[in-house]
Amino acid sequence: MNQLSLTLLGKQKLKWARSELRPLEKDEILIQTIAGAISIGAELPQYNESDVTDPDPVYPKETGYESFGRILKTGQAVKGLKAGDHVLSFYGHKDFAIVNADKVVKVPESIDYTHALLNTLSCDAGKGVLKLQPQPSDRVIVTGAGVMGLLTIHFLKNYTKVKQVDVLEPDEHRRILAKEFGAVNVYSRENEISQDGYDFGLECSASSKAFKLLLRSLKVSGEICILSDGNKDLFYLDENFFNKELKLIGSSDGWDYQEHSKWFFKESESAEYLTKLFDYKIRHHELIDCFADISMLKINPLKVLVTYDS
Hints:
CATH topology of the largest domain: Quinone Oxidoreductase, Chain A, domain 1
Helix content: 25-40%
Mean pLDDT: 95
Radius of gyration: 20 Å
Number of helices: 9
CATH architecture of the largest domain: Alpha-Beta Complex
Order of helices and strands: EEEHEEEEEHHEHEHEEHEHEHEHE
Structural class: alpha/beta
CATH superfamily of the largest domain: Medium-chain alcohol dehydrogenases, catalytic domain
Number of strands: 16
Largest sheet: 7 strands, mixed
Shape: globular
CATH class of the largest domain: Alpha Beta
């Protein structure tokens, strides 16, 4: 069986590569992709060769990491999964893939892929929030209401039950979404936010200017978790960090994608606003043009849903 894989060959150079799939190992499964997504914050800097964490990129690179599909075949040692089951995985922009069975999340038939695909980033956001351990009475500020910021709000409000979640976001449409996701106060300008007013901050914008605001807005001994990829701006610690003895925490990937899905899938059934995160939809053969359009600012989606022939 042949596999099509979207490969980055250089700056803004994408190509579909065809290869023969190898035989299954006993603990692996073969998946046919039904849908995927472009995670713009992570993928666009790589596409534009502007990722500050990767100044000397090596090519070729695989692309994408959010995949939803149907199992076609299982290895002899695979338990708990069978042909026909829907699963989430992390292999990216490919039409078929072979993955280890332990690395997928089984998706109930009742869950649509527009909800299921969000489990990955929701789990990433949840890990950062859980590192801070905010209590319902704490005051929390989130910078950036892109997909990561909005899923962070959702987790804060519905998992940790924090009552006061405020957001800084310059884009009007995203501010409206932040309100719908449960934010109490949504600010467009930095001078609207009080100094020393928050117990915790979550950085989801990848903006050094927003990070500086977090340092200013936290109380003495406050804590910040950086959830953005850090691939856009470099962050610097100023006098607020030292004078207020703030604590800075990094977070990468999710805490447990399978365990998180048990909460997220159930919660998503009563949170239809989650599907608004996918505000642009394409077929997989349109991926190359879509990356170019985003890069040239012809379109400015929050998140792109990609569907495949199945």
